[in-house]
Automatic annotation (TrEMBL):
PANTHER family: ERGOTHIONEINE BIOSYNTHESIS PROTEIN 1. Residues 27-331 form the Histidine-specific methyltransferase SAM-dependent domain. The keyword Methyltransferase applies. GO terms for molecular function: methyltransferase activity. This is Dimethylhistidine N-methyltransferase. InterPro entries: EgtD_Methyltrsf_superfamily, MeTrfase_dom, MeTrfase_EgtD-like, SAM-dependent_MTases_sf. It comes from Chryseobacterium taichungense. One of its GO terms (biological process) is methylation. SUPFAM superfamilies: S-adenosyl-L-methionine-dependent methyltransferases (SSF53335). Keywords: Methyltransferase, Transferase.
Length: 333
């Protein structure tokens, strides 16, 4: 009887958290599409189809970011381990927006081989990709201590802080920080600094400014996978929020400004049209755009300024062999 009641409680709490998620999603979508200019949050790209499309993006020849950071995690693993370990003390290794953890798995393997005591806590808003990650890790590194945290970065970080009082090492890879505007990135780093304790470490991936064509091609591949990834958010709105976007009436457009380092994705409305989302009508003019995502590129001095402005001290920098991408190690001091 007690077990049955517990099961009912778990089911009800799951239902209410799914409802909260849908309410947030709807509210963000309507607010974004009723603003000028229209915008959508790229954190909603990642449903099951979005996760699969992102895995295809990572394998594209044009998308150099994953290969560069993989070069670091495969070939400079012991340098990373040296940068994040302190006095052999046990720690929690928390990865923000872990995705399938393909790159960090090399670090996890190395840490366990050298006998480090740590718990791996991947945080991701996509429950689907966390189950892919769990399946892969159980197969590759069954002995690792792992705690999956499904939800938003800070909500789950706060939860992680309550789970143990061990030193924290935060991984924020793949240029995820680039998916924030400069102001948002600053606010994010300040909030992170305030949450962490002295001696905690953050390892952040930054995509460096480089030949503008190399950057632009990475986000506007000829095979159309990036376009499908952006358009999938409209399909997701149709599926989950009772929308009626006609996907063929929108087109992906990418731009890169080599001075600011902002690479931006848009969807263009190809005609005057009205779209119904959960009973609300949204009007689009022909050629009006939806701002979908920024992928910010940095110079080394911009990275230094960001760390200094938000209270962190840079203690290391590991670059790939082409010097296109760096993992910067920051300490709370
Ligand atoms: C661009 S992918 C990168 C994945 C991985 N870090 C890598 O380097 O391969 C971004 C990941 O972050 C997750 N994500 C995006 N915004 C998030 C948020 N606000 N809170 C938690 N996870 C988020 C997505 O679900 C996705 O798995």
């Amino acid at each position: 009887m007690t077990t049955y009641m517990n099961l009912q409680l778990i089911k009800e709490s799951k239902k209410s958290s799914e409802k909260d998620h849908t309410d947030h999603f709807l509210n963000d979508v309507l607010t974004g599409l009723q603003s000028t200019p229209k915008h959508l949050s790229s954190k909603y790209f990642y449903d099951k189809t979005g996760d699969e499309l992102f895995q295809k993006i990572m394998a594209m020849p044009e998308y150099y970011l994953t290969r560069c950071e993989l070069d670091i995690f495969k070939n400079k693993t012991s340098e990373i381990a040296k940068g994040i370990r302190a006095d052999q003390e046990p720690f929690d290794l928390i990865e923000l927006g872990a995705g399938d953890a393909m790159k960090s798995t090399y670090l996890l393997k190395h840490l366990s081989e050298i006998g480090t005591d740590f718990t791996y806590m991947p945080i991701d808003i996509s429950g689907n990709i966390l189950s892919v990650l769990e399946k892969n890790l159980k197969r590759q590194l069954p002995a690792i201590d792992i705690e999956l945290l499904e939800g938003e970065y800070f909500e789950m970080l706060e939860k992680a802080m309550t789970l143990s009082s061990r030193r924290k090492v935060i991984l924020f890879l793949g240029g995820n920080i680039g998916n924030m505007s400069r102001k948002e990135a600053e606010k994010f780093c300040i909030a992170l600094y305030q949450l962490l304790n002295k001696e905690d470490i953050v390892l952040i991936g930054f995509d460096l400014k480089k030949n503008p064509y190399t950057v632009l091609n990475a986000y506007s591949d000829k095979s159309g996978i990036t376009a499908a990834f952006n358009l999938n958010l409209l399909s997701r709105i149709n599926r989950e929020l009772d929308g009626n976007f006609n996907i063929a009436d929108f087109q992906h457009y990418e731009s890169y400004d080599p001075i600011t380092g902002a690479c931006k994705s848009f969807l263009i409305s190809l005609r005057d049209q009205k779209v119904n989302i959960a009973g609300q009508l949204i009007s689009f003019e022909e050629n009006e755009v939806i701002d979908m995502e920024v992928s910010q590129k940095f110079s080394r001095s911009e990275i230094r300024k960001l760390a200094e402005k938000t209270g962190f001290r840079i203690t290391g920098e590991i670059a790939d062999s082409k010097d296109w991408f760096i993992d910067s190690i920051w300490k709370v001091s």
